[in-house]
Amino acid sequence: MPLIIVIIGIVLLFVLIAKFKLNAFLTFIIISLFVGIAEGMDLEKVVDSIQAGIGNTLGFLVLILGLGAMLGKLVADSGAAQRITTKLVSTFGIKYVQWAVVLTGFIVGIPMFYSVGFVILVPLVFTVAAATRLPLLYVGLPMLASLSVTHGYLPPHPAPTAITIMFNADLGKTLIYGIIVAIPAIIIAGPLFSRTIKNVNATPLKEFVNPRVLEDHEMPSMGVSIFTALLPIVLIAAATLADLFLPEDFPLKSTINFLGNPAVAMLISVLVAIYTLGLARGKKMTEVMDSLVSSISGITMVLLIIAGAGALKQVLVDSGVSEYIANMLKGSTISPLFLAWLIATVIRVCVGSATVAGLTAAGIVLPLVSSTGVSAELMVLAIGSGSLMLSHVNDSGFWLFKEYFNLTVKETLRTWTIMETTVGVMGLIGVLILNALL
């Protein structure tokens, strides 16, 4: 009976979001109440559980996502993203332009939310394609594969970060494993797949062709741009590597770990970016601060959705459903990594949102992390991979791609959907290989 109630709750989640277009945060709260009451929890206990779930989920996440949004905004507004794109394209040349845009998407995609990265970088892709006279999808898909992978796999993006916290996984290890899994996924879904596309002629709408391109003197240098964009990754990775390879009595180990704490690393990176991408470029402090304030407005609903998912997760735990699911799956021969990926895939197909799919799947499979002994970091990546699968007409990213590249629905399914599915499948394969090796 507990499992049937959960299944009914998930179906209602699908219906309310996909059919009735109800806000995802409201839907999560409604479903949390439904599941808790249906499982026999005391009414006040259900409310307390929802409050605890929201608080536990957002406590650390607000720091990471808030600071991440600020860093991404500074990278975009300063012209650092444009500098990285133009410099890499000119360095690699026409022959290797795909690898240039792949690197651009990866570097810029790490600190920048997907929708922001898309809007900033796709017009630059149009400019590159026009200048090199290469097919638009040949240049564009590798960039978008990078952006998609960073969005689904890697902290500090919302879903991977939130799931890392839910599973009590090590954020640094998740980041390192994620990069290892991401590389082959991007290569196959981006440069290799885009070379197989025939008879799809993307022609961007006129309003997207001529974005304002900054002059050379208006942008920071290449070194400053890459250093600032990747600084949090460097700091977090350094702390993780120090934990793995340095002895406990190493004099600077505690300092390295402090600087590599995700919240501290993001704070340092934002402070550095305020100077390198703002004040050092001649901007006034008030102008830079206004930019940071505007960056936060874009993540408010994302935070609420994640909070709602945290509420549902806590209700599943407090009502005993998580323990019930864990006991039911104890004798299963199915890999928990594959199961997590499959559940995320099914929810993604039904709901459309990668964030909702990942967080909902995480709440369902949470007990598997402790009961099976599987790597929490790899579970984060398995769910992230599944959450990107089979993007279609109920996904906002599908329509964003379709409209910007001026394609038909059929052409978008042949290109975007296959690219996203390739990313998801390659992510699962990478996770299973890593699990066998670790």
Layout of strands and helices, then pairs:
Layout (H helix, E strand, L loop, with lengths): L1 H18 L4 H15 L4 H35 L2 H13 L4 H13 L4 H19 L3 H18 L4 H9 L4 H24 L27 H24 L7 H8 L1 H17 L6 H13 L2 H19 L2 H9 L6 H16 L2 H19 L3 H11 L9 H10 L3 H29 L1
Helix pairs in contact: 1-2, 2-3, 2-14, 3-8, 3-12, 3-13, 3-14, 4-5, 4-6, 4-10, 5-6, 5-7, 6-7, 7-9, 7-20, 8-14, 8-17, 8-18, 9-10, 9-18, 9-20, 10-11, 10-12, 14-17, 15-17, 16-17, 16-18, 17-18, 18-20
Structure characterization notes:
The protein is an all-alpha fold. Helices cover 77% and strands 0% of the residues. Helix 3 crosses helix 8, helix 5 packs antiparallel against helix 6 and helix 15 crosses helix 17. The protein is globular. The mean pLDDT is 85.
Descriptive tags:
20 helices; 438 residues; mainly alpha; globular
Helix content: over 70%
How many DSSP helices? Answer: 20
**Helix and strand pattern:** HHHHHHHHHHHHHHHHHHHH
Straight-line distance between termini: 37 Å
Relative strand content: under 5%
Question: What is the total tally of β strands?
Answer: 0
Report the uncertain regions.
none
Average the pLDDT over all residues and give the rounded result.
85
Structural class: mainly alpha
Shape: globular
Largest sheet: none
Rg: 22 Å
